[in-house]
Specification:
9 helices; about 250 residues; alpha+beta; about 35% helix; binds iron/sulfur cluster; 4-stranded antiparallel sheet; two-stranded antiparallel ribbon
Length: about 250
Amino acid sequence: MKENIETIIKDYVKNYHNIQKVETKWKEPLVSFAKAEDPLFYKLKEAVSPTHSMPKDFMEDAKTIIAYFLPFEEFIPMSNIEGRYSSRMWAIAYTETNKLILNLNSHIQTEINKLGYKSELIPATHNFDTNKLISDWSHRHVAYIAGLGKFGLNNMLITEKGCCGRIGTTITNLEIEPTERKEKEYCLYKYNGSCKKCVKRCVNDVLTDESFNRQKCYEMCLHNAEIYKDIGLNDVCGKCLVGVPCSFENPVGI
Ligand code: SF4
Ligand code: SF4
C-alpha cells in the first residue's frame, strides 16, 4: 500500500505539466508516513501552538498522515540567489506549487476513495494567526513527525533532497506503516557546529544561531508580496534556503 501511495504522488507530479500550464518544474517527490496516534503530535501543542490540531480533529478515524516534499528543479533556487528581493521565478514557483498541492491532495483523495478509504483535505494555512504568524497545522512539523526530514538552523525542514521545495500533508483512515525517523541531524550546524551559511545569507537580520525573529522575517516576505502581487499572494523570501549546502541535499549524509 505504501508503494501504491508513493506511485500515485510521483506519477501525478511527473504528469502535471500535461494537465496544467505551469513554469515551475519539480524533481521526483519524497513521500513519508506517520501514525495518526504518534505521541509526538501532542508535543506540537508546546512546540508550535497550544491550539495546534491533532489528526483526529480532521478525521475521527484517522490512521495515517501522508507527508510529501516537492523539490524544485535547481534553476528555480538558483534564480533566487542574487539580490535582496525574491526572484520572479521563486515567487511563481510558490504560487504554482500551492496550486499543485491542492490539486494533488484532491487526486490522492480520489485514489484513496477508489481503494475504499477516505482522506481529508487540509488547507495550506489552517487557522493562520496573523499576529503570532503560526497556523494550527504546521505541515513542516507534521512532516518531521513523518520522518520526511529534520529541521535546519534556517527553520526549514531539510530532506534527503534538501529544503528548496514545498511540503504537503494529508490525512487518511488507510493504515500505512510509518516511516522511521532518523536519529542523525541533517543540518551541518546542528551536526557539528559548522556552516551557518543561512545566517550569513539572511537579508533582514532575522536569523542567528540562537534566535529567529518571525516578525522581521514576515516583514521581508510582505515586501516580496507587494512586488509580485500581479501573480497572486506571494509572501515569500527564501534567501536563506538558496546557495547553501542544504539547498538540494542532506549535507550531513546518511
Ligand atoms: S545553511 Fe548550513 S547551518 Fe543553515 S540550515 Fe543549512 S546546513 Fe544548517
Ligand atoms: S526567509 Fe528571508 S528574511 Fe526570513 S530568515 Fe530567510 S532570508 Fe531571512
